[in-house]
Write a structure and sequence with these properties.
- The chain is mainly α.
- It folds into 2 domains: 212 residues, no CATH class; 194 residues, no CATH class.
- It is 82% helix and 0% strand.
- Helix 3 crosses helix 5, helix 5 crosses helix 11 and helix 13 runs parallel beside helix 17.
- The chain starts with a helix and ends in an 18-residue tail after the last helix.
- 40% of the residues are buried.
- It is found in: Cell membrane.
- InterPro entries: Poly_Biosynth_Transport, Polysacc_synth.
- Keywords: Cell membrane, Membrane, Transmembrane, Transmembrane helix.
């Protein structure tokens, strides 16, 4: 009881301290993920039953293709622009300029994406069969572009994104039940998704200009080029992360049967849900990290020490609970006990803890513009991940895939702290008990 009381007291102190905005933003993003999860449960079975498995595969494939263009148009601005907005938030003119430059750059990348997509019809003639569905699906890219999440992160006002995201998902779910009633309606599913995102994006932009007083001005080509250059390393790192995270199940598909893949997918779903908390934490604390980095490294180090304690307090118990109840979790999801899936879940359940543990080191690198070092470490991690996947998956199938994930997560986290300590010892906070007083920006 005393242990529980101590935890509750710490949470209460945190909630009433200067970090209250972080807690509010964390719960805002958590609400977004919860809404997405619930609406997915409602719409997913309905869509599959109405349009059939084959057509569902087609729209899912096009959704995946559009995600590549989303990565291109985002271009790492979720980190680079968030930082710029965060450190300049009190200068409305500068924030307006940053906002204008990022939006204009994203539209240039949108045009590039459309040209690439259009050329695919010439390079792959068989793709022409789905040209209308492809064009409808491209609205997803436009809708994601119009979501200024990076701006709201930078000013630490994520509640607006919560409202808009819930509106997006509600519009999507309503559109599905109203307009999708027979197999031929599969053409409109991605269009409904895209239009709901566009509506939410337009509302978000109206809030940006009316609530926060920003003014849009067309930037010069030089400023657009500067945005592309400044965010390049983060964009490259984002691609590496995307490829690394999506290769696991692809490589497993080379060596294992669909049944084994199914076992692994059950565990991975739980893994991704757990990892969502680490992703939310990453988004929430990054603006504060950027601000503290501008003040002094000592202020940043003190904050990150507290963050590490919070990570230990939350993620270790969470991982232990999943480890202990893996059998019951698999039984709940699959409706029957599957020992292979439970074993895989026990192997990877500590992965989200390792992902959260690397937040202080990775964000310190980004805050002090050590982007090249950050990219190098991520590249090494991606290479290790692919190499381990091919080796371990070949011999141990799903267990090998799960083992490669945990090994990669552990090595990558260790490399981040080691690289920071080795290359920039004046920014080391994890290996020292106290931050160095003489550190300068």
């Amino acid at each position: 009881m005393s242990f529980l009381r101590n935890i509750l007291n710490k949470i209460s102190t945190f909630a009433t301290s200067e970090y209250r905005p972080l807690l509010e933003n964390f719960f805002s993003l958590g609400l977004i993920q919860g809404a997405n999860f619930l609406l997915s449960i409602i719409t997913f079975p309905y869509i599959v039953r109405v349009i059939g498995v084959e057509r569902f595969g087609i729209i899912t494939l096009l959704q995946t293709i559009m995600l590549y263009f989303v990565v291109l148009t985002d271009y790492g601005f979720n980190l680079s622009a968030t930082k710029d907005i965060s450190v300049n938030r009190k200068n409305i003119t500068r924030v307006s300029n940053i906002f204008s430059e990022v939006i204009a750059t994203k539209f240039v990348l949108l045009l590039l994406s459309f040209l690439i997509l259009s050329s695919s019809f010439l390079l792959f003639p068989s793709f022409k069969e789905y040209w209308l569905l492809t064009l409808f699906s491209f609205t997803i890219v436009l809708g994601q572009l119009l979501q200024p999440t990076w701006f709201y992160q930078g000013i630490e006002q994520m509640k607006y994104i919560t409202y808009i995201n819930i509106l997006n998902r509600a519009l999507y779910a309503s559109g599905i039940f109203v307009f999708i009633s027979e197999p031929q309606d599969y053409l409109y599913i991605n269009l409904i998704n895209g239009v709901s995102l566009v509506v939410g994006g337009v509302i978000s932009l109206i809030i940006v200009f009316r609530k926060f007083g920003l003014q849009f001005s067309f930037p010069s080509l030089t400023r657009i080029r500067r945005q592309l250059v400044d965010a390049w390393s983060i964009f490259f790192a984002t691609i590496i992360i995307s490829v690394s995270n999506n290769t696991n199940i692809v490589i497993l598909g080379i060596f294992a049967s669909p049944l084994i893949i199914g076992y692994y997918s059950i565990a991975e779903k739980v893994f991704q849900i757990m990892r969502t908390f680490a992703a939310i934490l990453y988004q929430v604390v990054y603006p504060r990290v950027c601000i503290l980095a501008q003040e002094s490294f000592e202020a940043l180090a003190n904050f990150l020490h507290k963050l590490l304690k919070a990570i230990m307090l939350v993620f270790i118990p969470l991982s232990l609970i999943v480890f202990a109840f893996a059998d019951h979790i698999v039984l709940f999801i699959a409706g029957k006990y599957i020992s292979e899936a439970a074993l895989v879940l026990r192997i990877i359940c500590f992965g989200p803890f390792m992902a959260a543990l690397n937040i202080p080191a990775s964000q310190t690198m980004l805050a002090y513009k050590l982007n090249n070092l950050y990219t190098v470490v991520l590249s090494i991690g991606a290479v290790i991940n692919v190499a381990l996947n091919f080796t371990l998956t070949y011999h141990f199938k799903a267990v090998g895939t799960a083992s490669s994930i945990m090994i990669t997560e552990t090595i990558s986290t260790g490399l981040l702290y080691y690289a920071l300590h080795r290359k920039h010892p004046h920014y080391t906070f994890f290996l020292n008990k106290a931050p160095m007083k003489g550190a300068k920006l």
